[in-house]
Amino acid sequence: MRKIVIALMVLFCFVLQGTLMQWIALGGIAPNLLIIMASAYGFMRGKKNGLLVGFFCGLLTDIFFGQVIGFYAIIYMYIGYANGMFHRVFFPEDIKLPLFLITVSDLVYGFAVYVLLYLLRGRFELPFYFLHVILPEMVYTIVLTVLIYPVNLKINRKFDEIEKRSEKKFV
Amino acid sequence: MSPVIKKKGEHFHLPSKYLLLILTVLCVGMMLITLTTDFTKGPLNGIVGAVITPFQAGISEVGSYLSERVDELVEIRDLLTENEDLKRQIDELTLQNTLLQQDRFELYQLRELYELDQSYEGYTKVGARIIAKDAGNWFSSFIIDKGTDDGLAVDMNVIADGGLVGRITVIGPNWARVESVIADNVNVSGMVLSTEDNVIVSGSLELMAGGKISFSQLIDSDNEVMIGDKIVTSNISDKYLPGIVIGYITQIDTDANNLSKSGFLTPAVDFEHLEVVLVVLDRKQTVGEP
Q1: Cβ neighbour number for residue B229 with a 10 Å cutoff
Q2: Number of A:B CB contacts under 8 A?
Q3: What angle do CA B278, B282, B288 make, to 5 degrees?
Q4: Which of A10, B139, B143, B148 has the most crowded CB, counting CB atoms within 10 A?
Q5: Residues of the domain holding A6
Q6: What pLDDT sits at residue B250?
C-alpha cells in the first residue's frame, strides 16, 4: 500500500515537473520537484527508500529527456542514498534539517550535471552557470519544499500509524 | 555472519549497500547499452509514454485553460479601449492590405522568375501542440502530443513562426521529443543566404537568456556578409531540410586566426512563447548505406 502511494507520488511529481512547474517557472528556471522527493524519502524512510525513489525519479527523467538511459538515475539514486544517512538524526518536528538537506541535494545535483554534461564538453564558465541555473533553481526549490515536504511528511506519518495499529493487533 | 543469508522464519532483507551497488551496475550497463545501440527506441519508451503522456496532455490543457480564464478577467477593461483603437486601425489596415496584396502578387512573380520554389511552402506539414518541457533547466527540449501514430518519425524537422525550431530525436506512439536548435548540445550546419557561405550554428545555455545563438567557422575573406543577413539551413546538413530560416545575424567578429569569422544571430522563432509547432513530414534525402 505504501509502495503504491509512493509510486503514485513519484509519477505525479514527474508529470507536474514537466507541465505545471514549467508554467510557474521564473526566468526560465523551474524548481526541481524530483530532488525534493528523492531527498525527502531518503531522510524520512532511510537509505533504501531514498535510493529507490531517486532511481525511479531519475529513470523517468532519462526515458523522457535524457541523452542516455541511466545517467540521471544514478545521480538521483546517490542523492537519495546520501540523504538516507541522515535518517538517524531526523525528527519529524524539525524542519531545519530537511530544508538544509534538500538545499544541499539540489546544489550537488546542479554541480553533478554541470561537471558531467558541461565541463567535460569544455564549457568552463562556471560562475555563469552557477548564478543563472544552479542558484536560482536551488532557491526556488527551497520555496517549494516548504509547500511539498509537509504533504510527504503527513502521508508518511499516516502510514506509520496504520502500521503501528496493525502491529498492536497481533500483540 | 553475512547479512544477506536468510534465516528461517525471517523476512528476506537486502541491505541498502548491496541494492545501491546492484542498481549502480544496472545504470552503468544501461548507459553503455544506450550509447552503443538503439535501445531507447524500444518497448520501454512505448510503455512509459502510454502511461505518462495522457497525464501531461491533461494537465497542460487544464493549466492553459486556467491561465486563459485569468487573463480574460484581467483584460476585459483593456479590451474595451483597445476595441476603439482597433476599429480605427482597421481602416488604415484595409488600405495597407490592398497595397500589400499588390506587393504579394509581385513577389509571386519574382519567385517564379528566380525559381525560388524550394522555399518551404512546398513541404507537407502537420501541426502539434507542446505538452511538456524538459524536466531540468539545462537543456531546451520539449514533448509534443503527436508520435508515430500520426506519421511522425525521428529526424523530422520542426518549424514555427516560419523559422527552424529543431528536430525530433526520440519518438513514442503518441508523443515525440523535439530538441531545439538553441539547446546547448546542438549544432546545425547553416548557410548565409546572401553569399551562400556555410557556417556552423551552435546553441548555448549561456546565450539562451539573451535570446541569441552563436555561429562560427564563417569563411568570408571579401567581407561580404553583413549584419542583418539571413542564415538558413544549408544544403549539406544531413538532418535539416535546406532553406529553412534559422535567424538573422546581429554581430560578426573575426576569429583570432584571421581566416574565419564567428558571431551571434537572433533566432527567427520566439522560443520563450512556443505553444504550437509544425512538423515537416518530408525528411532530408540521404545517401543510402552502402
Answers
A1: 16
A2: 128
A3: 145
A4: B143
A5: 2-166
A6: 92
Of B227, B166, B161, B236, the closest CA to residue B199 belongs to: B236
Report the CATH number that the domain containing residue A117 is assigned in CATH: 1.10.1760.20
Q: Is residue B97 part of a domain?
A: no
The ipTM, to two decimals, is 0.77
First to last CA, chain A: 22
B24/A84 CB distance under 8 A: no
Residue appearing with cell numbers 526549490: A141
Question: What CA–CA distance (Å, rounded) separates A149 from A141?
Answer: 11
Residues B185-241 have pLDDT tens digits of: 888 999 998 888 899 999 888 887 777 889 988 888 788 888 888 898 988 888 888
Q: Which residues of B touch A63 (CB under 8 A)?
A: 40, 44-45, 48
| CB of B39 less than 8 A from some CB of A | yes
Predicted structure pTM score: 0.68
Residues of B in contact with A84 (CB under 8 A): 16
Domain annotation covers residue A39: yes
- Kind and range of the H or E element at B183? none
Residue A170: exposure state from Cβ atoms within 10 A (0-12, 13-18, ≥19): exposed
